[in-house]
Amino acid sequence: MDVLSYLLVPVQNPMLILLVAVGTFAGIYVGAIPGLSATMAVSLLVSFTYGWETQASFALMIGIFVGTVYGGSRSAILLNIPGAPSAVATSLDGYPMALKGEAGRAMGVATTQSVIGTLLGIFVLAIAAPIVARFAVNFSSVDYLLLAVMGMMMVGSLNSKSIFRGLLTACVGLFMGTIGMDSMTAVRRFTFGISYLNSGVNFVVAMIGLFGVSEALVQLTSLEVKPVKQKVDKIIPSWDDIREYIPLTIRSSIVGVIVGALPGAGGDIAALLCYDQAKRTVKNPKVPFGEGAIEGIVAPESANNAAIGGAFIPMLTLGIPGDAVTAVLLGALQIHGLQPGPNLMKNTPDLFYLIVALLVFASIFLVVFGLTGIKLFAKIVEVPKSILMPLIIILSVVGSFALRKSLFDIFWMLAFGILGYIMKQYDYPVAPCVLGVILCGLLENNYRRGVTLQKTVGGLFLSIFKEPVALILFLMIVVMFATQTSAYKNWKAKRDAAREAA
To answer: Concatenated DSSP letters for 179-236?
Structure first.
């Protein structure tokens, strides 16, 4: 059989298409619930579909995967509660649009950009999988360390008012990420003899508390404010709007694929990286970033969905998962008697191209189901706060408990909620704190590996200048830091004022 025949397998088996449709539909709504992640959903399906044939089980799991990545944007836009870590950046401009009554437009843009990003990611997966995977697998520990540092440098963009406050809250997140048993030495850190702390802080629990509960507490203090009537008459963006943002979409999708192909990076880092780059490169946006800029939705939504295709690249060609979900899918392949790696495409090319075809069908159903139900979702923000906010807290409790069936996670979630409420009262950003928790493992583990390999900290620093990839990342970090200093911002403001005067 040739490649085309492999791609047409789902067409010959309508049950596979039905399973992809069911998975995508369920994934959208599961992803919109904070705490119910793609990893959790796919993990449950591995045991549920254990006795199924390989094609059918993967059709359902791929649909769930694609749907949940997109679904997180809905609660991020409507409630400022990202349903998934990859939707954190979307909330920065999506929620301000909802406050203006433009939730329908924001979700329409998120849907179309997610579909475009997914399709571009699939294209790269199908055409350039071996090349991108070979590039990603050559990343050393120092490269990953610099990538994590670059992620930490994004806090300046997540909080444009004060880079100091952004860095401070990010450091709080880094500290929270170190709590628990050391991954290398098994030494207990900051547990104070409490056994529940041995497993550390789950970043999803932190995300639910800092975004969900804190926002509910803030809203409960302003019950007299009437809900904003949402405009949902224009959900599908016009072709002119889509065409206007195509360059940004393509740039963000390319970055999303590359970051997604880096093991352990994932769509959350891709979304934040592309949001940061959009904020730096988009000149004169119609609405400022952080206040409802469409570009602030276009960049992260196309990036995090493009990362799906990127995450499959190292998993299928090298047997290295690109993120947590593909790690679960890697185990699912092994359960079904298959071994992902260099020989997968040689021995079972039908499976590789079947996965590509299933991803394409999932993108199609993402358009169908993504643009339906938006009017119903938009009604959520019109519900009185006295009813909606207690429900959000209840769902946050349920979502936190569902992660690991631990009551202690509920306590952590409530603690993060109170911390987030206090931070918001004093105008400290919460997004960098979540970013710190997420990046802590990547930053710490690769720093220690790098020092071990290079013998000393000085040797680790000098190794940056010996490798071209590391040197490029280091220079990017220097530029990012320089452009976030107050001196640079003052110079830029004076330059722009001089240009306008001229």
So the answer is: -EE-TTT--EES-TT-GGGGG---HHHHHIIIIIIHHHHHHHTTTTSPPPPP--S--S
Return the structure tokens found at 231.
């405009």
Tell me how crowded residue 373 is: count the other CB atoms within 10 A of its CB: 15
| Cβ 447 vs Cβ 146: under 8 Å | no
Buried b (16+ CB within 10 A) or exposed e, 260-270: bbbbbbbbbbb
Phi (first) and psi of residue 310, to 5 degrees = -65, -40
Q: What are phi and psi of 355, to 5 degrees?
A: -60, -40
Taking the mean position of all CA atoms in its chain, how far away is CA 1? 37
User: What single letter denotes the amino acid at residue 196?
Assistant: Y
Q: Which helix (H) or strand (E) holds 466?
A: none
Residue type, 17: I
Confidence (pLDDT) at 324: 66
Contacts for 16 with CB less than 8 Å, ≥ 6 apart: 9, 10, 55, 56, 59, 358
Structure tokens at 197: 């702390």
Average pLDDT score, the chain: 77
Q: Look at the block and give the residue holding tokens 């590359």.
A: 258
The structure tokens 């992803």 sit at 31
From the centroid of its chain, how far is CA 240? 27
pLDDT tier for residue 137 given thresholds of 50, 70 and 90:
low
Ranking 106-115, 337-346, 395-404, 470-479 by mean pLDDT, the lowest is: 337-346
pLDDT digits (tens, 9 = 90+) for 212-253: 788 778 877 766 655 555 555 566 666 766 777 888 888 888
Domain parsing of the chain, residue ranges? 3-492
Residues paired with 188 in a beta bridge: 181
Q: CA 241, CA 366: separation in Å to the nearest integer?
A: 19
Q: How far apart are CA 209 and CA 307, in angstroms?
A: 26
Cα angle 454, 459, 463; round to 5: 85
Taking only the tens place, the pLDDT of each residue in 19-63 is 899 989 888 877 776 655 676 677 667 666 767 887 888 888 888
Tell me if the pTM is above 0.90: no
Distance CA 204, CA 213 (A): 13
Q: What's residue 343's pLDDT? A: 66
Q: In this structure, are strands 188-189 and 180-181 parallel, antiparallel, or unpaired?
A: antiparallel
Spatial distance between the Cα atoms of 168 and 376, rounded to a whole number of angstroms? 39
- 109, pLDDT greater than 70: yes
The total of other beta-carbon atoms located within 10 Å of residue 179's CB is 20
The pLDDT of residue 233: 59
Q: Which two tokens stand for residue 17?
A: 């298409």
Q: What is the pLDDT of residue 322?
A: 64
Q: Are 121 and 308 contacting, i.e. CB atoms less than 8 angstroms apart?
A: yes
Q: How far apart are CA 408 and CA 201, in angstroms?
A: 10
Structure letter (DSSP) for residue 283: -
